[in-house]
Amino acid sequence: MARSSRAFTAAALGTALLSAALTGCGTTDADAKEITVYSADGLKSENGTGFYDTVFKNFRAKTGVKVNYVEGGSGEMVQRLVRESSNTKADVIVTLPPFIQQADGKGLLGTYAPDGSEKVRDSEKSTTGTWTPIVDNYLCFIHNTEELKTPPKTWDDLLDPRFKGKVQYSTPGVAGDGTAVLVKAMHDFGGKDAAMEYLRKLQKNNVGPSSSTGQLAPKTDKGELLVANGDVQMNFANMNSMPHQGIFFPAGGNGKPTTLALPYAAGLVKKAPHAKYAKEFLDYLLSDEVQRQASSIAGGFPARADIKPTDKNATALAEIMKGVEVFRPDWAQINQNLPTYIEAWKDATKS
């Protein structure tokens, strides 16, 4: 499926679309048949064929409810909710961990367990009914397949001088995928200090901060970068439009490629202006119909354990994940310690 990368941020949506979204979410009519979704980038397409494009269109056809959409990095969306907490504009938020946990911890989420959430594994959703995954996903790295036909096998391979100015990862604490790079490094190197020492060394080759992971995919496809971080759903979904990127997973200390679960998680915003319709939308996201589209359209994985898609994308995704060791972080613990981790990263990389 051809669609854009996460570079399709709120800025790239265009002034008109953003203004429409803000106008819609600022309405004083609680009965207006519309909702506003604040979301991490990665599920919408520039050409109108992406997962969100399909979901929004079909949801409006079924219910008459229009979806206004505002997009940015996971951390950016949470901070926006914080700034607007006295005048809530969003109805639903979708972010990657640990930012959905962060939103929950800041009291920004309402309580609502959507229909279908009972079929999501207990270990993967909020214990208090404030958020649930809607599309499963995993951290990955990408390489330019023309200039770097064989991807690096290990983290240490990325320290090679040939990668100077050709490696970039998105900013931890701002981008969900960038934060996941930090988490994977701490897992693979056996702790915070060892991970920071490695990232200090990698800084010699690193281009520098990027607030959006999606900005890195087109750069890698064009050969401006040889290696960048990403996630399986986003990079698999945009391979048709960016064919010169390949997915890989740097090996951990045991020599085996590793990754971590990194689902898109959705929650009802506390004091949502259109809570009734927001709940209907959350129900729809976990419906059989939409969960099957997680692979066939989104290029990701269903959040519901009972949905087992067999489409060609699902088959290809299973092949990509074959032999990759998946770990599931304690996101609550990571969220609690994230400020410490980010400060350590800034100190190590001088970012």
Provide an overview of this structure.
This protein is an alpha/beta fold and 351 residues long. The protein has 12 helices and 12 strands. The protein has helices spanning 15-25, 51-63, 74-83, 99-105, 176-189, 192-202, 216-222, 232-237, 275-285, 288-296, 312-321, 331-349; strands at residues 34-40, 66-72, 92-95, 132-136, 139-144, 167-168, 227-231, 245-248, 258-260, 264-268, 301-302, 325-327. The strands form 3 sheets. Strands 2-1-3-10-4-11 form a 6-stranded mixed sheet, sandwiched between helices. Helix 3 runs parallel beside helix 4 and helix 5 (176-189) packs across helix 6. The longest helix has 19 residues, at 331-349. It starts with 14 loop residues before the first helix and ends with a helix. The relative contact order is 0.19. The model is unreliable at 1-28 (pLDDT under 50).
Give a brief description.
By secondary structure, the chain is α/β, with parallel strands linked by helices.
Q: Numbering strands along the chain, what is their spatial order in the largest sheet?
A: 2-1-3-10-4-11
Beta-strand residue fraction = 15-25%
Helix content: 25-40%
Q: Tell me, briefly, the overall form.
A: globular
User: How confident is the prediction overall: mean pLDDT?
Assistant: 91
Radius of gyration: 19 Å
Record the SSE blueprint.
Elements: H1 15-25, E1 34-40, H2 51-63, E2 66-72, H3 74-83, E3 92-95, H4 99-105, E4 132-136, E5 139-144, E6 167-168, H5 176-189, H6 192-202, H7 216-222, E7 227-231, H8 232-237, E8 245-248, E9 258-260, E10 264-268, H9 275-285, H10 288-296, E11 301-302, H11 312-321, E12 325-327, H12 331-349
Parallel strand pairs: 1-2, 1-3, 6-7, 9-12
Antiparallel strand pairs: 3-10, 4-10, 4-11, 5-7, 5-8
Helix pairs in contact: 3-4, 5-6, 6-12
